Amino acid sequence: MLTVDFTRFPLAPGDRVLDLGCGAGRHAFECYRRGAHVVALDRDPEEVATTAGWLAAMREAGEAPPTASARALVGDALALPFPDDTFDALIVSEVMEHIPDDKGLLAEAVRVLRPGGRIAVTVPRHGPERVCWALSDAYHRVEGGHIRIYRADELLARLRGAGLRPYGTHHAHALHAPYWWLKCAIGVDNDTALPVRAYHKLLVWDLMKRPLATRAAERALNPLLGKSFVAYATKPRTPEPRTPEPRTAEPDAGRA
């Protein structure tokens, strides 16, 4: 299940791509299939080992061009082990909402992205995410859980503040929003409840079969219910002035 739309985030064979905070590797796999030289990086050794295994299996099965390459490694998003201007493209999918120093993460991402390169950033969308937080503390008050909710304009301000130039946005995964609302209402760890099991079965069917009806429904619902907000930006070839983020007005000290 891809969150990044590769028609808006084009890759060419031979591009150097970093999937930053790769998790289970879904975007790294797609970049590898498209002929890129991929690095999948995550702080979780188990996720990295799983991703490395799947990349090796893809290589053996001939699912990627022989000229492409891919590796997975454990690393810190706030101290990336790469020189400046290393990558042609970066993907940062469902990561920033977990990181206390999200500005530091973006600064590192911009550092290793070459001038003219592209970055795709995805975060949980404000509306559906706010519902999840209201329904369940357990959804986000866990180790490594979500620590903030971004509005679209806030995320775009973060990107501009890091010196990036946004060029497009969209929403994704509308069918997944009600699933997470159900889980939050019933219990995020309760996967045996009938409504949760039934909805999960629908999502798996949609993922495997890609039927026209559910694909059309999701496209129509994404602007309203899309679970993820996706933003695309480029790193200018010449440095741009940093754009200060909007500040919340301070209370008037002269009033009671």
Question: What can you tell me about this protein's structure?
Answer:
- With 256 residues, this protein is α/β, with parallel strands linked by helices.
- It has a domain at 76-234: Rossmann fold, CATH 3.40.50.
- It contains 8 helices and 7 strands, in the order βαβαββαβααβαααβ.
- The protein has helices at residues 26-33, 45-61, 102-112, 126-135, 152-161, 176-186, 194-209, 212-225; strands at residues 16-20, 37-42, 69-74, 87-93, 113-124, 165-172, 228-234.
- Residues 248-256 have low confidence and may be disordered.
Question: What would the keywords be for this entry?
Answer:
8 helices, about 260 residues, alpha/beta, single chain, Rossmann fold, 7-stranded mixed sheet
Summarize the structure.
38% of the residues lie in helices and 20% in strands.
List the helices and strands and how they pair.
Blueprint: E1 16-20, H1 26-33, E2 37-42, H2 45-61, E3 69-74, E4 87-93, H3 102-112, E5 113-124, H4 126-135, H5 152-161, E6 165-172, H6 176-186, H7 194-209, H8 212-225, E7 228-234
Parallel strand pairs: 1-2, 1-4, 2-3, 4-5
Antiparallel strand pairs: 5-7, 6-7
Helix pairs in contact: 4-6, 6-7
Domain Methyltransferase type: 18-120
Keywords: Methyltransferase, Transferase
InterPro entries: Methyltransf_11 (IPR013216), SAM-dependent_MTases_sf (IPR029063)
